[in-house]
What we know:
The structure holds two protein chains of two kinds. Chain A is built from 13 helices and two strands, in the order H-E-E-H-H-H-H-H-H-H-H-H-H-H-H. By secondary structure, chain A is mostly helical. Chain A has a domain at about 90-105 and about 170-295: MetI-like (MetI-like fold, Orthogonal Bundle). Chain B is globular. Chain B starts with 15 loop residues before the first strand and ends in a 15-residue tail after the last helix. At the A-B interface, helix 12 of A face helix 2, helix 10 and helix 16 of B.
Amino acid sequence: MSPKHLSRDTKRFLWIGILPSALLYGLFVVWPAINALMYSFTRWDGLSTPVWIGIDNFVNLFKSGSDFVTAISHNIYLTVVPGSIILTLALFFAWMIHLKVAGSTLFRVTFFFPNVIASVAVALLWVLLYSTTEMGPINNIRQALHMEKVPFLESARLLQSIVPMMVWSATGFYLVLFLAAMENIPVDYYEAAHLDGASPTLQFIRITLPLMWDVLTTGIIFLIVGGLKFFDAVWVMENGRPSPATHTMSSLMYAKVFEEYNVGYGTAIAVLLFVLVLIITRISMRLLKRERLEY
Amino acid sequence: MAAGCHFEPITSDETKTIEVALFEGGFGIEWHKDMARQYEQLHPGVKINLWGDPRVDEKIKPRVLRGNPPDLASCTLPVWKLITAGRLYPMDDALASPAYGAKGKTWKETLRAGVLADYVYENKTYALPSNLGVWACWYSKKLFREHGWDAPSTWDELTALCEKMLAAGIAPLAFQGKYPQYAWSTILSCYQRLVPFEKWYAIEDFTKGAFLDPSFVKAADLMQELAVKYFQKGALAMTHTESQMEWANGRAGMVFCGLWLKKEMEKALPDDFEMACFAVPMVTGGTGDPKAIYSGGGESFFIFRDAKHPEIAADFLKFLLSIEPARDYVKRNDSLTPVIDCQVGIKISSALQSAVDAIEGSTRMYSDRLNTLYIEWHRTLVQQAQADLLRGAITGQQFADRLEAGAEAVRNNSNIYKPPARGVPAL
């Protein structure tokens, strides 16, 4: 039934139902967002009266040598590098489990397990694994093999060290997502392909991937959004003091607003982060768009 | 003691509660809690809600922005932004009022000279340190005795000692690498050994070209040499507790740190450790004062103007920094406070005694305040430059160039408050 065919009472009932949520959303999401947009055009320390400076904050964000430009490059790195590894591994393991390799149920649980741990706890766990003291198992093994200790947690190499952690913690989620999509594909297609002599690899490329494309697209969007707003691991592994070598857009925004009281500049980062996520997500969806296959 | 009270007497039928938020670091907050209970007994109309957290600043900073600060806080804040915005409460009235436990003296007269100087704005004082620190290199007397090593008095002796430690299979220096700013005080101390104070304070005054002084470059080069050759392997990835634990366990021979180190590592130090310190050694060929020591107030207290009871907070702070509580602080925390003679007559540890000796034998106490004045410059540019210097990615000259370029940007930014040049403070 289309909305115009609803009775007046039904419409009134719907409005009454929606209104509290809409009010709360407006009060706690829309209104602060509008305020943030306004503050992004000001020089403001959060303490005195904001001074309107037009687009100066945005210009400063992109000045040569700006900490924001460096932070964006870190976000791109943390999106592309772990993202491509996670996608590849998740697809591979989901396919293997879908093919019912020996121990597939165990693998499914094992891979998903890191996903149930809170991201802060994951970061703390990896801080311990990477430690250069006697507590660090990875460096202990290296020493046992007469290799030099590697300061994985040193700011200059922290982003590279975060990649294995992200792969370990996130692959299971995408595996389960992709596996669910694979298991929804009717088995008839595979049987027909098998009768036609298609190899498992060809079946994967010609049947599985096209029929799970929507889910794959969703997974890629999740990875892009997660990479662009990456915050917690950097914050925890840098003990709340990320340096320019490790700042991401979100951690830089937090530091500018709450550590340095550079609220105008910080909200400009927030606005830009929102716009970037919106644009990149739209572009990704457009690029990944394919004709939907029904089955 | 109650005679020292300077706020309006509280009538018995009303209870006023003040909130005190503290950085819970090496010294803990047990002493503060006990002092709060003592103060409540002295002032039955006052209740003190005192709490601490190692990351107290992450909790307080958003509250300050919301206009809901505690009455009294000791944490890292963008202090100068608060001062210039009129958000902090000046302590001058309290400082001029009678001190607790020191008849005939104002509170100010009971405090060490110089400890009030760092947060003075338009002739008003906006912060008071809760302790008196000293920056030094810490070691175990027992370890040194066993190997026949002596505490060095020159930089050459220091590097020679590091070589001996390497030969003995001990990493010479532990370092709190996750916080590169731990190198800052050592670099500045080394620079002080190289130049007269007129030049050293030129840096504090952000004088144009001050960081480009060849002696500053040399100080950076010397720090880099220590890092590259003598820091424990993997130190640049260690937190302060991890690296100091390495030192306490004898896997590293020395560590540069503040006086809080003893209390911070108290539970980890073996009973027979015999902790002691020496000041940053004199550099051969330097023209600086060899007996000056990097020392000053630490963990400063701030009172917020828009708090509920700033005048009671000031009075509680006066109580905390009065002679009897200060003596108790020395006994329990094995450290010093800004209160004059707070350690006299108290049996103190070898660690604190060596720090007291260093202070008492010094010709001048000096310390840096650039990290509070120009926090963006310090937190981003200096922190990154130090990290790069320590891992050998840039030279001392490049380090100095970066700092000077950043300082020039600050000088040209009219929105950043720059205090009038102080020059060399009078003794």
